[in-house]
Amino acid sequence: MARTRVVVGMSGGVDSSVAAYLLKEAGYEVIGLFMKNWEDDDDDEYCSSRSDLIDASSVADVIGIEIEAVNFAAEYRERVFADFLREYSAGRTPNPDVLCNAEIKFKAFLDHALALGASLIATGHYARVREVDGRRELLRAIDGTKDQSYFLHRLTQSQLSRTLFPLGGLHKTAVRELAARIGLHNAQKKDSTGICFIGERPFREFLGRYLPTRPGPLRSVDGELLGEHIGLAFYTLGQRKGIGIGGQRGRQQADGTSPPWFVAHKDMANNTLYVAQGHGHPALLSASIEADSASWIAGSPPPPGRYTAKTRYRQADSACRIGLEGEGFRLDFERAQWAATPGQSAVIYEGDLCLGGGLIAATSALQQFAPRGALAS
């Protein structure tokens, strides 16, 4: 009897390596696929694709599977990077990892795997899929510190029906221990961080290659002129470093120091950057958000009611109520959210079940400083 063929996305990291090993041990016919998604200035200083391919190939040799390298750089530039630049140009802060999953890892990669005769694909993401009454549900991983369901919330029933997440029921410590036990040289390899095509390089320097600077006034949320910004595209809400406000500007605390400043609002119409002093400033807190471009795992939205949601990945769930509005939704939070940022994803959960989400379009700050009647974004 022929074994089920599954193509595993192998990045050279420990997670995808162990995912491939587990599937082979489970009796699948496993083929590894290394995806190259970026070619511009692909050098060893910031882009590790060469060494990552070597690592992935070495793992394939150890566990005894074939591996293929495929270049999706053209698809990535068209479907992900172009959107990334458009969003920053419009003053929003996109999350390209969410779009990469939807458009590359679970679309271009899936299509390629099917062309190789595979029935399924698999990745090293920490998440779980279960089937209930013929439909797929996306669940958080057992290891809550590594759960990646937030980045997967745009996946469809069709995509999930062909996807395996072998690590969803494991803790990261167990994954590394297994990798060491079976002799994988990357067992202790550092996890990748940041946006995949930027890596460890300075973000502002990278963005400046593609977007022009457009200086304008830098003001406090009370209207005081504090200096000049280099261009609204180069800042994001909640940003603390790199604003360019001197140490003792603004109010002082009892110990003589000044609370830090944070980006609070980008007025695109007037090319003005607003900043607020102090992490808990009401201009940084939003009681509600509006989202568009909604995507639902089940294929249809959940009924209005109480759920929990994240407005950024590294954040605890916050209780909220959802109201559906056209192609989007509105979330009203029991506790105001800090630096909810247009362009980022708001992802909704019911317990461990990820329901889907959308792109934050507008936020309602506790202190308004936009034109009267407008939402502070």
Can you tell me about this structure?
The protein has 377 residues and is α/β, with parallel strands linked by helices. It has 3 domains: 5-181, HUPs (Rossmann fold), CATH 3.40.50.620; 220-276, SH3 type barrels, CATH 2.30.30; 282-365, Translation factors (Elongation Factor Tu (Ef-tu), domain 3, Beta Barrel), CATH 2.40.30. The protein has 7 helices and 17 strands. It has helices at residues 14-25, 49-63, 73-89, 96-115, 157-160, 172-181, 203-207, and strands at residues 5-9, 29-36, 66-71, 120-122, 127-132, 135-140, 163-164, 216-220, 225-229, 261-267, 272-277, 285-296, 305-310, 318-325, 328-338, 345-350, 353-365. A 6-stranded antiparallel beta barrel has the order 12-15-14-13-16-17. It has a 5-stranded parallel β-sheet with strand order 3-2-1-4-7, with helices on both faces. Strands 9-8-11-10 form a 4-stranded mixed β-sheet, with no helix packed on it. Helix 1 runs parallel beside helix 2, helix 1 packs across helix 6 (172-181) and helix 3 packs antiparallel against helix 4 (96-115). It starts with a strand and ends in a 12-residue tail after the last strand. Residues 370-377 have low confidence and may be disordered.
